[in-house]
Amino acid sequence: MDSLIPFTTSGSLMDCVDRKMLVVLRDGRKLHGVLRSYDQFANLVLEDTIERVYYGNVFAENRHGLFLIRGENVVLLGEIDLDQEDEIPLRQVDYTLVEPHHKREVDTKKVREEVKAQALFEQKGFCKEGGEGDGY
């Protein structure tokens, strides 16, 4: 009977090992790589990791190789369907062409998030992320 209960912990990652995965991080980065290992905190080890950056109808890739991801930074983890991976309707370009646009978008988002956090702090009393007591 216990074998019918679905995993609700990092043990559910067991079937994902040695498969190509997409990981979206809290800072918005999108990483593609082969999941090689994980632990009870959902810290992940990705091999052959590529960071994909999107802008308009194009994308670029930046190779990172072996990548260790702290579990608390993972927003989304999903398996990539290898049969459909090459059928995306976007055109791949060199990373140096997309990088300035991507950095501008990241900076704009950072400013917008700071303004939102300040407004929530002043008007509703929410504490800012990364504030006192948030360090490890």
UniProtKB/TrEMBL annotation:
Entry keyword set: Cytoplasm, mRNA processing, Ribonucleoprotein, RNA-binding
PROSITE patterns documented for this protein: SM
SUPFAM superfamilies, per database record: Sm-like ribonucleoproteins
Location, primary (coarse class): cytoplasm
Domain Sm: from-to ranges: 8-83
Pfam (any one): LSM
Record-level GO cellular component terms: Lsm1-7-Pat1 complex; P-body; ribonucleoprotein complex
Keyword Iron: no
InterPro entries documented for this protein: Lsm1, LSM_dom_sf, PTHR15588, Sm, Sm_dom_euk/arc
Places the protein is found: Cytoplasm; Cytoplasm, P-body
Record family assignment: Belongs to the snRNP Sm proteins family.
Assembly notes: Component of the heptameric LSM1-LSM7 complex that forms a seven-membered ring structure with a donut shape.
Function: Component of the cytoplasmic LSM1-LSM7 complex which is involved in mRNA degradation.
Protein name: U6 snRNA-associated Sm-like protein LSm1
Lineage of producing organism: Eukaryota, Fungi, Dikarya, Basidiomycota, Agaricomycotina
